[in-house]
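Weekly structure sync, notes
Attendees: PL (lead), two postdocs, one rotation student
Agenda item 3: pending single-chain targets
PL asked that the sequence for the first pending target be pasted directly into the notes so everyone works from the same version. It is reproduced below exactly as submitted, 288 residues in total.
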Amino acid sequence: MTYFAFLAIFLGVPIAALSLWTIADYKRGKWNPRALSAWRPWVVIVGLCAVAFVYTTPWDNYLVASGVWYYDVDLVTGIVFGWVPIEEYTFFILLPIMTGLFTLVLIRYLPINAKRVEGPISNQVRFWATAIVSAVWVVCTGVLILTFADTSWQQWRYFGLLMSWALLPVMLQTAFGADIFLRHWRVVVLGIAVPSLYLSWADSLAITAGTWTIAPLYSVEALKIGGVLPFEEALFFTMVNVLVVIGMVLVLAEESQERALSYRRFRVMRPVIDWIMRGSNHAGATGD
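Predicted structure, written out during the meeting:
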């Protein structure tokens, strides 16, 4: 199975189906509820794609350059930028689109908690969530350092690289709005779980077909799922979907704009906040 065939079947088809579903809902007036309609959804998805592309590119290039994963040269087009084939860059874009569209379906159909968390409780939730994520990041980064210092830890290399990379933006998300995405926990949990399980299953098929391979030297072979899928791959899809779903909920949430404006008192933040607020558009994005 070529890499582009994998993308067309396992991401292209769901994206097409979810897009048609979304268009049909919008045509009959089923919009996002007011609590999650601060921005136009398509703008949020485009923004997430851009962030995913920029943040993932150097990390993934390092994985390939250092031999953590590699691909069958006969199953890609041969167009390579850096160390990564063009198909992989395409994957960076398609995954946020698919997960974003699925999250929009959940937002439109799941019950939304109308109660906002305010004041000291909100601050405590954000503080403790960020503290926990930060502690996990420190441990995972320590594991990563050990993989370079001690060859007996090499099998944890992929895990360390993944978690030290993925948890940094999660820290920012929890610091800004852990209380917000906990308010919308149904959307967050299902939005992360369903695409992650689906992509893990698809990934196991691609690995079996030889489209790409995770180096056994840098992966914990004893923790393979079903004897095929490295647990780090399932964790990768989970962490990426965490970033996409939480990012989408935070940007769409009604209280996020108010919170962003509160940071305007810091002079260094004013140009960024002003630029973000100019892009926000409530018109036509709300519903009951």
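Discussion points:
- The first strand starts at residue 69 and ends at 71.
- The first helix runs from residue 3 to 27.
Action: rotation student to compare against the earlier draft before next sync.
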